[in-house]
Backbone:
DNA sequence: TTCATAGTTCGATGCTAACCGAAGCATTTC
DNA sequence: GAAATGCTTCGGTTAGCATCGAACTATGAA
């Protein structure tokens, strides 16, 4: 009967709303303290403490004590990937979100999806790279030699990225757009570069990525969509 | 707070042991009746009925009435992929399975992972294709032109596969081997061909794939590992 | 019609776990 | 030292839900 690993155990861990909120909050890639997570989940410290203990014991979180603070983060990229996959299924099949607030609009525009850029801006980046022949999409994205030049020119150290265990390019299905965007270590590096250039900054209390007016223009120039390239843009 | 889709809702659906067992049973890709699933989960029909209703309502299952039977299947490949991802996380981080029985040994050797071949045989197939230059692994598998010839020779209609929406090649992390094997429509087609050739058959009540003695030999000949290729095999 | 099988609905029961108040540690600051 | 802050443990309450027996509907067979 029970063929394979015990998926119910860890699904149940994610299945509680308070814990799910904590996990989603950690998808930004930042480590948060227990108190911050308690606030994020809308429960008291005591309750949060037990939840966090269970999540850690269950292998979903990693914790690091620092003074009297306890910082928590997702245990691995696998966990982040699992949460993204869950979001995809939850958004696709199943109830649509009940209400679309202004918060959601910003979230759809640009957000962090476990350290890389997602939302409309994320898919635009992906499409732009593909349309200009920098990214070759077969059964999974791959950087062309022209693309390698482009990335270096944009200030990304590809050799350093290749050191890591994580794949350079990976695509990730967007729950809001239902289209692909770029994940993997390159995806992360691109977001980091965009931040470093001052084009955008991470809103501290959520996963929303806020582009400045100039930043958005610079972004559109660097990563034009197929249409803008063809027509000369506005 | 609640950024994005409601992942807790569907995680909670998977989080119940009875429901999880049902879902895992459906990972074979076959559609099963309500009674079969009740037996699989070890609960009575009444209990199973409510579970199945919830899973369907939650968008995880698809049902088709046929006479007085009700056949249930996973709603989409996405759901299958989600379950497999869950298995990966559950097997990796977290408790190891309590006991490894003979059932598990067979399961580790060769099993169905949502319609494609997984386990030792699955990773062997993957490694073999890669070692012989049929599969190019960059950031995701891709069939080389030599590989295309090989597949046609093996009796696989690539053009037909390309018609579908699903990607041709995709890699899938194996929970038992912690290594990759081949998913995607090509992965499915390969399993189908292996079955059609009589090399193996699906054990009706589980996800185990049973190779015959001759079938295993033929498989090893067609998909030799790097070592066997180099040394001339046994 | 009568019987059998597949599946659903209802009501009652019992267990699990989420939750918070209060008290208890540990670490930092004054 | 004492006070403050971050986090944990304990105990008791409450709510949700998985479970099954029993009764009910629907399809198919004799």
Residues:
């Amino acid at each position: 009967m029970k063929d394979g690993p015990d998926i119910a155990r860890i699904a149940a861990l994610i299945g509680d709303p308070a814990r799910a909120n904590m996990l989603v909050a950690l998808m930004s890639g930042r480590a948060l303290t227990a108190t911050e997570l308690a606030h994020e989940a809308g429960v008291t410290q005591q309750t949060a403490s037990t939840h966090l203990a269970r999540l850690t014991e269950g292998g979903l979180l990693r914790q690091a004590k620092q003074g009297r603070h306890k910082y928590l983060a997702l245990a691995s990229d696998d966990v982040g990937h699992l949460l993204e996959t869950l979001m995809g299924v939850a958004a696709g099949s199943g109830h649509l979100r009940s209400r679309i607030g202004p918060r959601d609009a910003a979230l759809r525009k640009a957000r962090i999806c476990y350290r890389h850029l997602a939302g409309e801006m994320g898919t635009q980046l992906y499409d732009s790279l593909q349309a200009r022949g920098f990214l070759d999409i077969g059964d999974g994205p791959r950087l062309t030699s022209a693309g390698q030049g482009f990335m270096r020119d944009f200030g990304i150290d590809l050799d350093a990225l290749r050191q890591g265990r994580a794949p350079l390019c990976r695509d990730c299905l967007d729950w809001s757009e239902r289209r692909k965007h770029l994940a993997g270590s390159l995806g992360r590096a691109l977001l980091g570069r965009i931040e470093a250039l001052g084009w955008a900054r991470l809103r501290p209390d959520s996963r929303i990525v806020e582009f400045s007016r100039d930043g958005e223009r610079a972004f559109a120039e660097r990563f034009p969509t197929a249409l803008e390239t063809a027509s000369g843009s506005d």
Notes: Chain B has twelve helices and eleven strands. Residues 80-231 of chain B form one domain.
